[in-house]
Write a structure and sequence with these properties.
28 helices
Amino acid sequence: MDDVLDEWNYSILKFQIEQSSDGVAAADADVVPPKCTVRFCIPCSCLCFKKVSVRRGIALKIKQVKERLDLILAEKDRFHFDEITSQPSDRESWRGQTTSVIDKEGVYGRDLEREALVSKLVGEGGSSEEGLIGGIRVVSIVGVGGIGKTTLAQLAYNDSRVENYFELRIWISVSDPFNEVEIAKGIVASVEKLDEPPKTNQLEMLLQRLKESISGKKFLLVMDDVWTQDDTKWKPLKNTLKSGGTGSKVLVTTRNEKVAIMMMGESIKNDRMIHRLGVLNDEDCWSLLGWIALCGKSKDQCEEFENTGKEITKKCNGLPLAAKTLGSLLCFKNTLEEWESVLNSEIWKLEEVEDDLFRHLFLSYNELSPTLKRCFSYCAVFPKDTRIYVDELITKWMAMSYLGSNADDDWKVRGRGYFDYLSMRSLFQDFDKDGDKIKSFMMHDIVHDFAQFLRKDVGSRMKKTTCEECSPLLVSQVEKYRSSLFRCKEVLDPHVCDCLTSVRLLDLRRCGLQAIPKEIEKLIHLRWLDLGNNKFVGDDLKSICKLYNLQFLWVGWCGLQEIPLEIGNLSQLIHLDLSGNRGVRELPESLCNLSKLESLNVNTCFSLCGLPQGIHKLKKLKHLYNQNTISLKQYPQGISQLTSLVTLNKVLPCDGNKVGWLKNFNRLSGKVELSIETSSCGDSVEDAREAELGKKMHIQELRIYFSESTTTMDGRGKQVKDTSSSSSSTSVWNEVLDALHPHPNLQHLTIRHYNGSRLPGWIVSPLNQLTSIELDNCEFLVSLPPLGKLPLLETLSIQDLYELEYVGREFLGIATTTTCSSMATIAGGFPKLKKLTFWKCINWTKWEDITVEEDNVAISIMPCLTELIIHDCRRLTELPQRLLQKVSPSLKWLDITGSTQLIQVYGDEDGQPWKSISDHNPHLRLYH
């Protein structure tokens, strides 16, 4: 259906653009497509088509789609199919109830996991809040199906330390649905040692009996295989279990981390009580597989099969259930040829794997909505062991129409929500995070095989090709995933084959292409195209500009010299990456007709002198990436209307304002660079105040680069040379930086070429979340403020402070009070600082030491410092000895390169000055 609509849109847009270029549809010189998009209706513009054959061809395809839908509906009625939701209870019907009984001989590689879990069960398990519900602690084992959660719970349950610690031990197989009545019956029957559970189905009566049974008794309750996220089903049991004795524990096994969080309570600091179960190493996995596969075989057979068996083990990728499944399969294969046949087979094509292994994964899969199923199975398009980047994956989902349209501006949020949902169900692993946000991940090989298995029949209804020019693997990818992500140029060499025209995603990054064949115009369904890091010349992009359904386009680092006017034809474009094209001097005005554009990347376009004057028409633009655009000196006036911008790396003057035009840009986030030209007149201060940086709570990194204006305005509004002295303008510099007060959420701050005489008070506020500060070329600063007050500061770099002569004790930010008997620290001392750098402070002569009194008390100063770098500070004669003795247990690296007088004093590692520091820390290394 989407393909037919794509063709319909394509035909309409092509016709209208051709009309426009002929001067029929538009008098404007720009080539601009209409802003309307056909999706679910056929407008009257179909009457405009010149060729009846085009209309007839699309009409026939619509008729074919309708006939197929009618056939599906007829077959549904014929076979009496009804739409039903999945029956969760089916899980229990084939899996059966689990028990606490375990054969320890068949368990390998879980000793460390068992010890960690037992320590959580029999110990206090951390702070008094972690995982607690009332007086009970909840511990969870989370992992993908088949990884051994139940086995680990059984090992802990039967550990002698656990047996001796708890008065009662209860094992309940929960599965799905979560039947609180049956669970309560099971607990009562276990505690009271009944032959049969209670007959009543009244939950109130059961909970009262349960409360009496466990009252005051320290118990361990194992709830195996929990699926529900509905806390209303858990709360009655949870409240009843609080009557147990102090130290009682509930051990939960689940595939879904959200279940674990729900059972522990959303407000609980619960991460330490979640045990994320990992895979087995190859040796333990082979031990498990071999224990099953070699059972009953002779010694000679065991030796004969061992090497092949170890290679087969790698297919399991550490998943115990896979090892058991393949071990059971190999147990009945008695020749080396049969074992090698298994080795050389795709695991997902083995019938036994489908029956015994994949049905475990189907449990998680069947919990997903149809959209999430498509999102998950699409991940099989990536080769195994590929690190998949989440943001890029979301654009692919969008191009595949899995996220709906971008009409409501939240497709990225939806995509991130879908990914989080899948990752919480243990379908992804090996996360690389930026703070709490997952940047990239990998898929377990077995999960990848499962995703491939799910796609095995996708494309089977498509017209089969007998093409001999394209590789079967390439054709298969296009049929199953509508994608070609091999990053090879086969798809365009030498022409676009008809068997590939249905492709929606095409990745040709770094393929060595020197030109784009005109045949790319055939790929009318293309929505995602990456041509980055190829070298194109001439009018190559014009052929791309006929791909009217394109939503995502990367042509960064392609050596482009200009962007064609026809770029405005891509009316569906959401993301455009032009980064690294250093010869591009301007962007065409037609680009401003891309009404759906949300992201524009011109990073490292060194020659770019300006942005289009009509940029205000890009109402949906959220991200303007413009780092390293050194020729870009100011913005067109219209940019001040784009108040929905989230990313704007570089802030330049606009309509006479330096930064004041940012007043309403409160959605800005990430890294922001301010370039401020300061004059001696007061308009700079007022302009800085108007920016209202304090309201921009999402900015994480702020770089403030100052420059001094050489002109000012005379009384008639004309620019004249600024002859005011630097001393008279110092106060202006101070006031400007005072006015640029950011939100306390800021994490990284850089101030460069600042000519003020002091730093603002806001920089040392204890409320700041700053983790790094860089002060560079602030040549008139003569002292440093009490930066030690900052509670989270980890990195501090001070460079080219030419007037700095003295660093006093106030720099540490410590405040102490003295009583008759003792001294107590109030605050400061750089509690989190890890790296401290002084660079080219050429007039710095003295670093004041802490006092003898402060040295004699337990004051914590720089307790985390590992690196102290003092480069090219040639006049500094000595280091603060008492201070460094306080710091020395953590300090690992002292670098005094280029600081000639320090080298004379401390360069001899056998001398007393160096020993006075290093004797307190034998691991300290000196570099000079």
